[in-house]
Amino acid sequence: MTRPIVGIIGNSYLINDEYPAHAGGTMNSEAIAQVSGCLPLLIPSDPRLVSVAELMDACDGFLFTGGRPNVHPEEYGEAETEAHGVFDRARDAVALPLIRACVEAGQPVFGVCRGFQEVNVAMGGTLYPEIRDLPGRDNHRMPPDGTLEEKFALRHTVRFTKGGVFARLMGAEEVMTNTLHGQGIKTAGAGVVIDGHAPDGTPEAIYVEGAKGFTLSVQWHPEWNAANDPVSRPLFTAFGQAVRAFADARRGLRASA
Questions:
Q1: Are β-strands 109-112 and 217-218 bridged in parallel, bridged antiparallel, or unpaired?
Q2: What are the structural domains of the chain?
Q3: Residue 91: in which H helix or E strand, if any?
Q4: For the purposes of burial, counting CB atoms within 10 Å of the CB of 69, is it exposed (0-12), middle (13-18) or buried (19 or more)?
Q5: Predicted TM-score of the model (pTM)
């Protein structure tokens, strides 16, 4: 049986500080293949190479991954400052219109970390450049030292809205997650429902109200240990089910055309 295809939004890197490459974390592909049950396909996020229409036709759903570059503040009407960090304008140019088009079409999207922030910005929301600089907020950044296991270790709780989408999916109103991000949601975009918060009030789980397809996104990194983690596995399983349903419906429409 042919697996539905999930496009994984890649990031731009320089290998050895000189060779340009598009890349994505192996754990993202593993989560899509092993937990979602879909075929992972890495997308070169550059509008010179791909178009939104082509991507939507080629893929059944999309995973918007984390990445070191941040969404450029011009995308939400603010001036660039040093606190905003580094950027990937080519990814901005692909990811943001792709999210809007998928939400409109009901094509499944799953945002993780930067991808979570992209969903909010795509819908008209804004971001704080650095959460740890805000009064009363914790440092949500990745620990600078230690093994991968230590960097992706569970570090804080996330409390979901009672009876909300995430609480029903998880079967719990509070879960433990990792945290490896610097920025965070300031104002929610149109239709964006903040359905979970960290103890310091930082938004951690969102979806787009009224969307025809899967739009759940999280600020943490569920791709780490996705096959075994009791919080990660339901997210990737539900995403895979949504992608499969979309693919089946689209095949049915094409067959009857």
A1: parallel
A2: 5-129+183-256 (3.40.50.880)
A3: helix 89-105
A4: middle
A5: 0.96
Crossing angle of helices 89-105 and 114-122, in 10° steps, is: 60
* pLDDT tens by residue, 172-195: 999 999 999 999 999 999 999 999
User: Band of the pLDDT at 249, cuts 50, 70, 90?
Assistant: very high
- Please write down the long-range contacts of 105-108, taking CB distance under 8 Å and 24 or more positions apart: 105/56, 105/212, 105/213, 106/211, 106/212, 106/213, 106/246, 107/56, 107/60, 107/61, 107/62, 107/213, 107/246, 108/60, 108/61, 108/62, 108/213, 108/214, 108/215, 108/239, 108/242, 108/243, 108/246
- For residues 127 and 129, give the distance between their C-alpha atoms in angstroms, rounded to a whole number: 6
How far apart are the C-alpha atoms of 65 and 131, rounded to whole Å? Answer: 19
Residue 1 has pLDDT above 80, yes or no: no
Look at residues 131, 155, 64 and name the one whose alpha carbon lies nearest to residue 101: 64
User: 212: Cβ–Cβ under 8 A, 6 or more apart, which residues?
Assistant: 105, 106
CA distances from 14 to 18, 29, 217 (A): 5, 21, 28
Please, what sign has the CA dihedral across residues 37, 195, 221, 54? positive
pLDDT at res. 141: 92
CA gap 55, 125 in Å, rounded: 24
- Cα–Cα distance, 257 to 126 (Å, whole number): 41
Tokens of 111: 């945002």
Question: How many angstroms separate the CA atoms of 28 and 34, rounded?
Answer: 10
Q: 17 in the Ramachandran plot: left (φ > 0), alpha (ψ -120 to 50) or beta? A: left
